[in-house]
């Protein structure tokens, strides 16, 4: 194992509504409540974290900081020491996680596009009975895609893969300067780095624009069943079909806190 997506954390204004949306409508299962401000769906710390942040502000020099820690992607890496050494050589800032915050040694850092990243030392553990869903990828917005890719490959130690497009590709660019995939497989899983495209939704006749703001993508056994539950609950869905990734049916939706969400299925 070189690296993997450990979990994603997202802002939730109403924890119960968010837990129902992801648990019942998306079908990810029952949520745990590790504390009053958090819900978690998954096993062994791996999965989806929903967090209601404190309404707090803090100053760091001339910067005024809000509750940025609620939204991030967490990656497990094989050697935290190696990553720390590369961060130090590059002169990049990072902050340790709080004691007891995670079961493994962990740090927070920012990529060049200011996406918050949590890095955890891999512990080699795996769920005894993996759930029927998994995080297929996390899409991160970056105005300078190649700069972000250089950070993830040169500093974090990931590898860039080749984008496997659908036979009938939608109207968007797969130029590596505008869309890149960091993966350990050949199914576009992993991290997607994309340059925001204001006309993406309009050209593809979607109600949602997945190129803006970033999003997690959950792979499920039956995406049409998920779509039916969402629409029955009055949730607007963009059904993209197989349009971007070979062999992958994708839909897009906004959750209860207006976070962009992708749900997909191998077909």
Task: Note the beta-strand portion.
Answer: 25-35%
Level-1 CATH class name of the largest domain: Alpha Beta
Radius of gyration: 18 Å
Helical content class: 10-25%
Tell how many strands the DSSP assignment holds: 17
What do we call the CATH homologous superfamily of the largest domain? 2,3-Dihydroxybiphenyl 1,2-Dioxygenase, domain 1
Number of helices: 5
In N-to-C order, the SSE pattern is EHEEEEEEHEEEEHEEHEHEEE
Ranges where pLDDT stays below 50 over 5 or more residues in a row are none
Kindly identify the CATH topology of the largest domain: 2,3-Dihydroxybiphenyl 1,2-Dioxygenase, domain 1
Describe the overall structure.
- The protein is α+β, with helices and mostly antiparallel strands and 267 residues long.
- The protein folds into two domains: 3-54 and 63-121, 2,3-Dihydroxybiphenyl 1,2-Dioxygenase, domain 1 (Roll), CATH 3.10.180; 134-266, 2,3-Dihydroxybiphenyl 1,2-Dioxygenase, domain 1 (Roll), CATH 3.10.180.
- Helix content is 18%, strand content 34%.
- The longest helix has 12 residues, at 145-156.
């Amino acid at each position: 194992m070189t690296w993997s997506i450990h979990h994603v954390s997202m802002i939730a204004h109403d924890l119960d509504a968010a837990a129902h949306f992801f648990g019942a409508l998306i079908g990810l299962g029952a949520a745990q409540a590790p504390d009053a401000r958090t819900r978690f769906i998954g096993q062994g710390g791996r999965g989806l974290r929903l967090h209601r942040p404190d309404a707090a502000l803090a100053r760091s020099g001339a910067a005024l900081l809000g509750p940025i820690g609620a939204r991030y992607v967490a990656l497990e890496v094989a050697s935290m020491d190696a990553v720390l050494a590369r961060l130090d050589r590059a002169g990049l800032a990072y902050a340790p996680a709080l004691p007891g915050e995670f079961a493994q040694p962990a740090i927070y850092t920012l990529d060049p596009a200011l996406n918050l990243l949590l890095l955890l030392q891999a512990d080699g553990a795996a769920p005894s009975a993996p759930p029927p869903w998994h995080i297929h990828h996390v899409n991160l917005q970056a105005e300078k895609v190649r700069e972000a890719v250089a950070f993830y490959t040169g500093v974090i130690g990931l590898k860039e893969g080749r984008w496997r497009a659908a036979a009938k590709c939608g109207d968007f660019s797969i130029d590596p300067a505008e869309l890149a995939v960091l993966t350990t497989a050949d199914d576009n899983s992993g991290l997607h780095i994309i340059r925001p495209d204001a006309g993406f939704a309009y050209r593809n006749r979607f109600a949602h624009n997945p190129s803006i703001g970033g999003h997690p993508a959950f792979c499920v056994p039956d995406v049409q069943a998920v779509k039916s539950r969402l629409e029955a609950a009055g949730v607007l869905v963009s059904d993209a079909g197989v349009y971007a990734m070979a062999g992958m049916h994708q839909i897009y939706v906004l959750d209860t806190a207006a976070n962009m969400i992708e749900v997909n299925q191998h077909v």
